[in-house]
Amino acid sequence: MSLRNAPMQTPVPHPDKTSLFRPDIRAEIDHWIAKYPPEWQQSACMAALMIVQEDNGGHLTTELMDKVADYLDMPPIAVYEVGSFYAMYEHKPVGRHKICLCTNISCMLNGSDHIYQHLQQRLGIRFGEVTEDGQFSLKEVECLGACCGAPMMQIGKTYYEHLTPQRVDQILDRLEAADGK
Amino acid sequence: MATPESITLQVDGQTLTARPGQMLIEVTDQAGLNVPRFCYHKHLSVAANCRMCLVEVKGAPKPLPACATPCTDGMEVATQSALAREAQQGTMEFLLINHPLDCPICDQGGECELQDVAMGYGGDVSRYTERKRVVQDENIGSLIATDMTRCIHCTRCIRFGSEIAGLRELGATGRGEHMRIGTYIAQSVASELSGNVIDLCPVGALTSRPYRYTARSWELHQAETIAPHDGVGSSLYLHLRRNQILRVVPKENPDCHQTWISDRDRFAYTGINHPDRLTQPMIRENGTLRTASWSEALQQAADLIRATRAERLGLLASPNATLEEYYLGQQLMTGLGSRNIDHRLRQVDFRDDAVNPPYPWLGCRIAELEQNDITFLIGSWLRKDQPLLNHRVHQSVRAGGQVIAVNPVAYDHNYPLALNCVVSPAQMACELAGIAQALKADTEGLAVTVTHAHQQAAEQLRAAQHGSIILGTAAQMHPDYALLRRLAAHIAQAAGLNWGTVGFGCNDLGAWIAGAVPHHTTEATTGQHAAQMQQGGCDTLILLGLEPEADVADPQQTAQALTQARVIALSAYRSPLLEQTADVILPIGVATETSGSFISLQGDRQSFAGAAPPPGEARPGWKVLRVLGNALELAGFDYPDSTHIRDAALQHHTTPLPDNCLGPDRAALQPQATVHNWQRIGGVPIYATDAIVRRAAPLQATPDAWDDTARLNPRMLAEHNLSAGAAVRLTQGEHSITLAVCSDARVPDGCVWYPTGLPGSTQLGASFAHISLEPA
Fold first, then answer.
1. A3, A8, A77: residue with CB nearest B46
2. Would an 8 Å CB–CB cutoff place B415 in contact with chain A?
């Protein structure tokens, strides 16, 4: 048998792909599909999952992954594999602001434990939990490649580096103020 | 000598030859050199993720995986050098880190690849003292038991799903320490080949659920047999303990089923020792059945037969009987002066018998299906009816071939169809005629308009270098079978393809050879065919190995015929209709309990010995027929064993090669299938094909077991104001049954999909006929 596999597609494509997502979501996914050869449209799986996750308020559900599978003519399990492999896909509801705190070696040596303790005190939640008002959730992540700014965290698409408890408070105050609290 | 086609390399000092690009492990396997492996399998793609097959290659800085290293000319390989051994032992240690050492309670213990390899490459003491990972199990159905903590992530089961089953159901979700093999959403696996992952799994993560905790491999003894459920003729090993079959595994046969078998062949054994098994002869006395001695029962049977005029005596044989049973049945009937013998129990259209092919078969070797550019399925759910023929067709699609179909239901296939023409049964002949017309072939006088789809199909068929037309089970049960077959032959001829049929059971070819058909004998006379006998053409009927309410074309008519006739039943299982109507019941063994031969769809004769004795006083069918012949004082029933019967049967036959040619002088055929208000679509579900399968509880608990609903498409449901789940009454003839409807978009308009072989359908009539449907 050969080394390389042709992509596995479902025997029968979904009959009505327009029913799966809103037009704007479809346009975004199609933009990614267009980047790959036609028979490798499932390469757009990661991007499609990001798009529908964002649209769903930050987390994926089995139904959404099934829809992505239908849209890309993939067996659902192949989408579950991608969705469960990467850390940026969430499978449970997250807060409006997902705080990803790095606890890898550089950040740990520079006091990420203190930052975690401070976040726990301020928000009253631990890693993997969401505040009662749904505003913040806390997630432990592996190295995000910002060791020179350790300790660091990511909220949304922004990196916050050289963290101290005071700086964390400033950042969270700003976010709360922006949310109107 | 190195030639462009072959290169030479040195492995452990031996000079081996290989094709350029061939993987190293294939070459060492051929040479009998042992390289340990877990993820590599010769029929699956190369993953190279277990790293167990690391070997030293001269010039390479690090050990290389033999499964993913192509051979090159002059390569020098050491599989047992210090570097290779160290690499293999290192891999082994890593693999054992998270593997629970629960071999004493593991079903795989004693036949485990991990255990075997750990003996050779593992350390004797573990250096690992940390906690091991534990994985929660999923329930993936009634056939496969999971213990995913034991999984070593070889991914064979995943690759099997996408490459062989054509249905990716298992996957590796999560990452690193959290990676696990499963369905993610805990659902039953639905593939009809799913049981093969039990053989593929090198550890005890996926094991057979029915076999679980019943025996240890070293307590079992192994017997060879041939699968008795479809015409593929898969070779099997039966594993028995104290004469009881505890499991079934495949025996490799590259020309036939490679290393795969269908779940039906693997798990049907669970139906063998069902409480319905007949263990004692019975005779009817004053209207009730009572147990009797063999001599009493045989005497009664002989008396009944003697009291019947030869032309009113008939024999209906199951399509799963052995060649020997067919031949003795034929000899019995010939000796008594009757030609009323048939095995085509589910066929209704016999108009073409006079010009029938003398020895119909698949039309090509099974392995040749894989080379097809095109496969044309007519009335065939190949995937469920003959799963391993479908496997070959699936492989042809993976290699770029195409499949087109004319079917009464949009059956789900595990490959895309280039053209899927789904029409009501009555329109199937017209569709074929349209394609024939587009190919400028004979249309059998059918007036047709050639559509774009017909043109397209014709072009694809004509363009193909190698191709097959397969008439499936639904076509064979169709009221216009003769017509469909002629049209298929014309299309095949015009497009230069081969064509064939799939039969009804595992030994249709054997039945043809042995003469278990009412025509094609040395005598010119023709007897009654199966439908005539089912319509009451006989005063005494001998039933050979069938369940009369489930194995026939028209259960309703058959019940009537059996009520009116005297019935002598050679049967392995009791059934309500037999108990109502049989005058003599002679208990016989199932295929694993008798010696005999099957002839597969590709024409291979395969003989086997009985693996276990039949239960109680039941005896192999051929012995019962032999004694019956003696009791009737017929000549030529003195065979010392079944091999003599086989030799006589093969000698008796005049056309040794399978042949699908239709004879000359064909009378014109008018379509018989007519359009009614409602048309029934029958067919036989995968787990309703024969008495054993119908009693195999694990198979009946799979998603493929029919859920006893009548299926209509959503449009029809709306039109008749029915909601899914509503009760309806289906009526054929004088009988009706009440059951729920369900919505199924695969069914064409005006049709009700309700197969035969189900408990409910024993009350109904023919498979593809008029049916009436009303709300109940």
1. A3
2. yes
Are A10-85 and A97-178 in the same CATH fold?
no
Residue contact A80–B42, C-beta within 8 A: no
Tokens representing B335?
Answer: 């000796």
The shortest CB-CB distance from B46 to any of A1, A78, A81 is to A1
Residue B524 has pLDDT above 70, yes or no: no
Name, in order, each residue with C-beta under 8 angstroms of A139's C-beta and a sequence gap of 6 or more: A94, A98, A99, A100, A101, A127, A128
What is the per-residue burial (b if ≥16 Cβ within 10 Å, else e) of B367-395? ebbbbbbbbbbbbbbbbbbbbbbbbbbbb
Does the beta carbon of B169 lie under 8 angstroms from any beta carbon of chain A? yes
> Per CATH, is A10-85 categorized as 1.25.40?
no
Instruction: State the pLDDT at residue A6.
Output: 62
Q: How many CA atoms lie within 13 A of A48 on its CB side?
A: 31
Question: What are the chain A neighbours of B413 within 8 Å (beta carbons)?
Answer: 11
pLDDT at B3 over 90: no
Indicate the domain borders of chain A. Answer: 10-85, 97-178
Pairing of strands B54-57, B64-65: antiparallel
User: The tokens 């922004």 sit on which residue?
Assistant: A158
Please answer yes or no on whether A1 and B166 come within 8 Å at the CB atom: no
Cis peptide before B576 (omega within 30 of 0): no
Contact residues for B120 (Cβ-Cβ < 8 A; gap 6+):
B36
Tokens for B162, please give them: 């996408």
Tell me if ipTM is over 0.85.
yes
Task: Per residue of chain A (181 residues), give pLDDT as tens.
Answer: 454 556 677 888 888 999 999 999 999 999 999 999 988 899 999 999 999 999 999 999 999 999 999 999 999 999 999 999 998 999 999 999 999 999 999 999 999 999 999 999 999 999 999 999 999 999 999 999 999 999 999 998 899 999 999 999 999 999 999 987 6
CATH class, domain A97-178, is: alpha beta
At residue B334, φ and ψ (nearest 5 deg) are -60, -40
B184 to chain A, any CB pair closer than 8 A? The answer is yes
Among B22, B168, B194, most A C-beta atoms within 10 A, so best to mutate, is: B168
E-strand stretches of B38-133:
54-57, 64-65, 76-78
Say yes or no for a CB contact (<8 Å) between B398 and A5: no
Residues with Cβ within 8 Å of residue B236, at least 6 apart in sequence: B224, B225, B226, B227, B248, B249, B250, B251, B261, B265
